[in-house]
From TrEMBL:
This is Fe2OG dioxygenase domain-containing protein. The keyword Iron applies. It comes from the Eukaryota. Residues 213-314 form the Fe2OG dioxygenase domain. Its cofactor is Fe cation. InterPro entries: DIOX_N, IPNS-like_FE2OG_OXY, IPNS-like_sf, Oxoglu/Fe-dep_dioxygenase_dom. One of its GO terms (molecular function) is metal ion binding. Signal peptide: none annotated. Coiled coil: none annotated. It holds the Pfam family 2OG-FeII_Oxy. Keywords: Iron, Metal-binding, Oxidoreductase. Belongs to the iron/ascorbate-dependent oxidoreductase family.
Length: 365
């Protein structure tokens, strides 16, 4: 057993020290994936095929009317649909969301261009130390702690509350990341008003709690995998954030766990995928659910691109204690979680890695 674990440690280090990620492996022409990427068959398998009555079930697509509802009834209907989706699926797609469709394409193109540029240029930005700079590129944030590595590389940038200096961003991403983060922040604030009302609260409640204060952007690159049945693009996990806004291309592979089954998240042209994060499940006292999800290894002939924007302040100093919102707890519905800071929550999540268990369990009362 010791030999195997030693091998794993040295293979992880060797992979990390190339500074070229999974893309570097693919460029080298490998036909077999290294053992560090092999996932257990339990994690890879769909536990059970979908029964016929669930085959047509899918996460809801909600029209938010360009963020301007013509009537109070239209607004009420959208809030009802969001309430149901957030409470049952933890996921929904929004259309007519007010973010320019042209910008969505430019954002995906910028991420692809960054990952497909010369490895010599990218290497300069490769880092595992997220505190050192606001923008960095790496492969597998939990490389040394997770049971198996995932077949993807990522650029990470802390966009708010303390935005990066534009000069610190690579040229192909500079303008688009700044503009996209502004538009996503604006969309996020709007969604938090609808989610506040869905909880029966004042529309400003979640924004007043600073749920939209922080934004972290991740640009994922999932290269074609030569052995997609042995690994995953992203392991099963739930997000740490209050809310996540995800832009994905048409290749697909994202799946959500619901009632013990994996459901594919379909590509809806021009839509953005919204999912509830752990912190919003915690403060909503389980009225909203942060669902486990994963990304299958890419079988397509070209790389899959996705851009995930997480609403939370992560490791930024923020002394605020977050617990179940007082206005929605009662004797009949007591708090289910203890209070925590975002920093404590994130530190626990990062130390645990993507191991398929919920970080929320650690904070249950």
């Amino acid at each position: 057993m010791e030999v195997a674990s030693f091998d794993r440690a040295s293979e992880l280090k060797a992979f990390d020290e190339t500074n070229t990620g999974v893309k570097g492996l693919v460029d080298s022409g490998i036909s077999k994936i290294p053992r560090i990427f092999h996932h257990s068959s339990l994690n890879l398998a769909n536990p059970k095929p979908l029964p016929s009555d669930l085959l047509l079930k899918t996460i809801p697509t909600i029209d938010i009317g360009g963020r301007i509802f013509e009537t109070s009834m239209e607004r009420k209907n959208a809030i009802e649909r969001i309430k149901e989706a957030a409470g049952k699926w933890g996921f929904f797609q929004v259309i007519n969301h007010g973010v320019s469709l042209d910008l969505l394409e430019k954002m995906k193109d910028g991420v692809r261009e960054f990952h497909e540029q010369s490895p010599e240029v990218k290497k300069e930005l490769y880092s595992r130390d997220i505190t050192r700079q606001k923008f960095h590129y790496s492969s597998n944030f939990d490389l040394y702690t997770s049971p198996a590595a995932n077949w993807r590389d990522t650029v990470t940038c802390f966009m708010a509350p303390d935005p990066p200096n534009p000069q610190d961003l690579p040229e192909m991403l500079r303008d688009v990341m700044i503009e996209y983060s502004k538009q996503v922040m604006s969309l996020g604030k709007f969604l938090f008003t609808l989610l506040s009302e869905a909880l029966g609260l004042n529309p400003n409640h979640l924004n007043d709690m600073d749920c939209a204060k922080g934004l972290i952007m991740l640009g994922h690159y999932y290269p074609t995998c030569p052995e997609p049945d042995l690994t995953l693009g992203t392991s099963q996990h739930a997000d740490t954030s209050f809310l996540t806004v995800l832009l994905q291309d048409q290749i697909g592979g994202l799946q959500v766990l619901q009632e013990g089954y994996w459901f594919d998240v379909p590509h809806v042209p021009g839509a953005l995928i919204i999912n509830i994060g752990d912190l919003l499940q915690l403060i909503s006292n389980d009225n909203f659910v942060s669902s486990e999800h994963r990304v299958l290894a890419n079988r397509a002939s070209k790389a899959r691109i996705s851009v995930a924007c997480f609403f939370f302040t992560a490791m930024t100093p923020n002394p605020t204690l977050y617990g179940p919102i007082r206005e929605i707890v009662s004797e009949e519905n007591p708090p289910k979680y203890r209070e925590t800071t975002i920093k404590e929550y994130t530190a626990h999540f990062n130390a645990k890695g993507l191991d398929g268990t919920s970080a929320l369990l650690h904070f249950k009362i």
